[in-house]
Design goal:
Elements (H helix, E strand, L loop, with lengths): L4 H16 L22 H5 L14 E5 L5 H12 L7 E8 L3 H8 L7 E6 L8 H12 L4 E5 L3 E3 L4 H6 L8 E3 L1 E4 L5 H19 L10 E5 H6 L13 H9 L5 E3 L6 E4 L4 H14 L6 H31 L3 H28 L9 H21 L11
Parallel strand pairs: 1-2, 1-4, 2-3, 6-9, 7-10
Antiparallel strand pairs: 4-8, 5-10, 6-8
Helix pairs in contact: 1-11, 1-12, 10-13, 11-12
């Protein structure tokens, strides 16, 4: 058995890395789950009440904004959940569709007697501006209330307490409220894993008062501020990224609330492979035009590099020690690798439990290691893409 300075140094480094690097990931950054409406806040949550107002605080009237486009099936499936909210303060649901979308028009006629629903349209010939952003702008102008809740028609509230839970954050000190959206169980495990890890980073930043963008398609904002700042001015040409641009443009220190209590959760429909790919490619384009992206990206990149370096050192040490018959070092490196895997699984599972995420523990390590390869695939696809496809200015 060989025990020398090299063995001692390498063994010490491996053990330290095995204990430290699992802590460098979004799951360990511990985004907390807010107390529900019926729960009593703990002492810690009382001290940090600036993130959420009291459930008993007066709540404003709200305008919910939906902008479906050729999504009649999603509109039929999800619209009822928005119209059935238990919200005594009063609210309206504004649906902005494309003029000439006859299927959506026929569907909306079924709700013509519902006093909560208001429908309006945008011209089919709109140019030089993202039609989605135009639809949002028209919807905001049509809103009767100061607080507007923008949501994606592919998502639906899990509870009729959804609006009430989100609206408890609408205090005079807040101008944005970010919700929490998760994919349904039919969505592939890797897509749910990647999305949840991303959300952990974004929720942690929001809870610390430094939101970079909005990972979920559920956002409340003030109509007066949107109109005074010319809405999406500065990023009108980009075909996607409405939620990201809103948070990035309007967030101020301490002005953003994150609401992720279970009553406020939303479920998103399973994305198609094209939708999933487009989401990543469009994000790579509009990320360049968001402020504060360097710090956000460096944090994620550092965590990924630390994880891969740790694994590579452990595996390389096992190979080296075995070839040189340093059996003690082989055993220590194997133990270090085991510690790394176990810690990463335990940390991820704790995060899954807090947000009721159902992903096998045995998939965690393969999924973590696969993140960089999926990112590389999307990066290559972005490099090869026609960049005019990301904007409305085609000339």
């Amino acid at each position: 058995m060989i025990i020398d300075n090299i063995t001692i140094i390498i063994a010490a480094v491996l053990v330290v890395l095995a204990l430290v690097t699992p802590l460098l990931n979004g799951f360990f950054r511990k985004p907390s789950v807010n107390e529900g409406l019926s729960q009593t806040p703990s002492d810690d949550e009382t001290e940090t009440a600036d993130n959420n107002c009291s459930p008993q605080a007066p709540q404003p009237k709200v305008s919910i904004l939906l902008t479906p486009h050729d999504n009649v099936q999603e509109l039929e499936r999800n619209l009822p959940a928005y119209l059935e909210q238990d919200y005594a303060a009063g609210y309206e649901v504004i649906v902005v569709t494309w003029q000439g979308d006859q299927e959506s028009e026929e569907l909306l006629k079924r709700y013509k007697d519902n006093p909560l629903l208001y429908c309006t349209y945008i011209p089919d010939s709109s140019r030089y501006m993202s039609r989605e952003k135009l639809a949002v702008t028209i919807g905001v102008k049509a809103a009767k209330n100061e607080w507007v809740l923008m949501a994606d028609i592919h998502t639906r509230p899990d509870s009729n307490q959804w609006l009430k839970t989100l609206a408890r954050n609408c205090t005079e000190f807040k101008n944005l409220v970010i919700g929490y959206v998760r994919f349904n169980e039919e969505t592939g495990a890797y897509k749910r894993f990647e999305t949840f890890l991303r959300d952990c980073y974004l929720m942690s930043e929001a809870q610390k008062g430094h939101p970079f963008r909005c990972g979920s398609h559920c956002l409340m904002f003030r109509k007066s501020e949107f109109m005074a700042a010319d809405g999406f001015k500065g990023n009108l040409k980009y075909l996607q990224g409405e939620y990201d641009f809103m948070v990035n443009k309007y967030a101020r220190e301490g002005s953003v609330a994150l609401e992720n209590a279970p009553e406020a959760w939303m479920t998103a429909d399973t994305p198609t492979d094209k939708t999933w790919k487009d989401f990543h490619l469009f994000y790579l384009e509009h990320r360049k035009h968001l402020n504060g992206g360097i710090g956000h990206c460096l944090k994620y990149a550092f965590d990924q590099i630390a994880m891969h370096v740790n694994y590579l050192l452990e595996i390389a040490t096992i190979v080296f020690a075995t070839l040189t018959q340093r059996w003690l070092l082989t055993g220590i490196a194997t133990i270090a690798l085991t510690i790394t895997v176990v810690l990463r699984i335990v940390i991820a599972r704790k995060a899954f439990k807090r947000f009721d995420v159902n992903i096998s523990r045995w998939a965690i390590v393969p999924f973590e290691l696969g993140l960089c390869w999926h990112a590389l695939f999307h990066r290559i696809s972005y490099w090869r893409a026609d960049k005019t496809e990301f904007i409305s200015h085609k000339l």
